[in-house]
Amino acid sequence: MTAAIITTNLGYVLLTFIPPILWLLFYLQEDRHPEPKRLLLLAFVGGMGAALLAIVAEFVLIGPDGLLDLQSGILRNAIVPFLVIGLVEEYAKYLPVKTLILKRLDFDEPVDAMIYMMTAALGFAALENTLFIFPVFQENLLVGFEVSANRFLGANLLHALASGIVGFFLARAFFSPRRHHFIALGILTAALLHTGFNYLILVREVVAEGTFYLILLLVMMAVMVFIDFERLKKSRISFK
To answer: Which of 7, 157, 174, 187 has its CA 20 to 30 A from that of 102?
Structure first.
C-alpha cells in the first residue's frame, strides 16, 4: 500500500514537470550550437532552487507581518504586491544563471544568455507547478490535467518569455559600458510584464475582454523573444 501511494504521488510530480519540459524542448531548437546537457540540467535545477528562494523572499516581504506594510501609504495600491512578486521572481530566475553558468567556457555566444535564462525559468516553473498542481492531482486527476494545461499556456509560458527577455538584455550587457544597469533594466522590463500578467489573471473575469488582453500580452512577449532570438543568432561575436 505504501509503495503504491509513493509511486502514484511520484507520477503526479512527474506530470507537473511535463509542461515546462515541453517548452524547454521547443526553445532549445532555437540554438544552432546545442549547449552541454550537464549545464542545461544545472540551469534547470538552479531554477528550481530559485523558486524556493522566491517563495521565502515573497513571504518575508509581503506575507503576514512582512517587511512591507501593504496597508499604509502608496503600498496600499493593489498592484504593488504583484510588482513585488514580479521583481522577486525575475531576479531569482537570473541568479542561477549568474552564479552557475556565466563564467563557464561553454557560455560563449550571445544567444546562450537567452537559452540558459529560459532553461532556469522553466526549472522555476516546474517546481512552481509541483506546489500548485500536485495537491490538485491528488484530489481530482482530470482537474489536475486542466490546471496543468492552463499553466502550460499561461504561467509556464510567461516565465520562459520573461526570462528570455532578461537573457537578451544580459547578452547585450556584455557590450555595454554600464553592464549592471543594462541587466537591471532587463529584469525591470520582465518584472513589469510579469506584473501585468498577474494583474490580468486576477481581473480577467471582471474586466471586459480581460482574457483577450492576457493573450495579447503573451503574444507580444512571444514576438519580442522571437525577434531577440533572431537578432542574437545573427551575431557572430563570441564572449570568449
So the answer is: 157
